[in-house]
Design a protein that fits this description.
Elements (H helix, E strand, L loop, with lengths): L3 H14 L5 H17 L8 H26 L6 H7 L1
Length: 87
């Protein structure tokens, strides 16, 4: 599944916070992004509010999963405050 430009930017940014190219962090983030994209592939219901929630839940679950991966694998203290706020 293609992550797209935004997904690639997020993964590269997370790898930068980890203090370099940490394969474990990149793999965990990539998995979270793929799961998010799959979960967000919904058929519009005609109810904008319902559809918005259906999209935002997996989006935020993915953000939490990536923040948890950063907490586990991150090495750079400059990202520490962001990691703690996001998880």
């Amino acid at each position: 599944m293609r992550l797209g430009f935004i997904g690639l930017v997020v993964i590269i940014g997370i790898a930068g916070c980890a203090g370099g190219s940490d394969e474990s962090l990149v793999a965990a983030s990539s998995t979270a992004m793929k799961e998010m994209m799959k979960a967000m592939a919904i058929r519009p219901s005609g109810d904008v509010d319902r559809d918005f929630v259906a999209l935002m839940i997996p989006h935020h679950e993915s953000a939490i999963a990536m923040a948890q991966a950063e907490l586990r694998y991150g090495k750079t203290s400059s990202c520490g405050a962001w990691r703690r706020r996001s998880s």
